[in-house]
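Posted in: Structural Biology > Protein-Ligand Complexes

Title: Requesting predicted complex, 2-phosphoglycolic acid in pocket

I'd be grateful if someone could produce the 3D structure tokens for the following input. Sequence and ligand are given below.
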Amino acid sequence: MRTMIVAGNWKMNKTFQEAEDLTAEITKGVEKLGAPNVEVILCPPAPFLEMVLDLTDETYVAVGAQNVSEFDFGAYTGEISAPMLRSMEVEYCIVGHSERRKYFQESNDLLARKVKSVLRAGVIPIFCCGELLPEREAGNHVKVVKNQLEESLFDLEEKDFRNVVIAYEPVWAIGTGMTASPEQAQEMHASIRELITLQYGERVAQDATILYGGSCNPGNAMELFSQPDVDGGLIGGASLKADEFVEIVKIAINCT
Ligand code: PGA
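-- Reply #1 --
Done. Output follows.
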């Protein structure tokens, strides 16, 4: 089902105490809004997952992880698996963020295995895709994203694909203050929906949730979220400030 989502990716930020305060403040703000028709997700660093799960229990706020192992269990020191996340009642997991691709050499093939592991465990992957600046400048942005989707997602069976959330995050827009224009976002989101239509059919494509990420903030969220194929956002920097994040949730509510 197509859902409006606002997800906060805290990346490797905050101490335990700071994360506790941020969670409490965001949850209070979201509860005040009631958040009808919008799924609000916090993706804290892994050591804080349990605390965030506790503080958001029985609220409108759901919890996601930022990364996961491709393996279910075993001798993989330092890794965290999808069945572990599931056993803690973590509902979502970001897979393939561009920082993972860049700093940890995560390939489309590896990400395909991670997505499958996450789905097998009953967790919803938030699969990130997006082009680098030179790729956009060369006019190859749609081709790059098509390749990422084909190699990491399109061999899923339809019933599994239906459980994937896609986040289009142009790499040049992440943490740079250089947001994609609403037209650029809409063009890519419509292309992604078209690719899904070709692979899985019109109904699956219309039901797919496609988020935008990359310097999204309270000042630009409205024009981005009102594009017909943009179903919310994956928020980095602005998710570290409770008032800004809650404001973005409010904007998403107004766009439903
Ligand atoms: P940003 O990050 O909002 O700070 O650009 C987005 C993301 O990396 O998911």
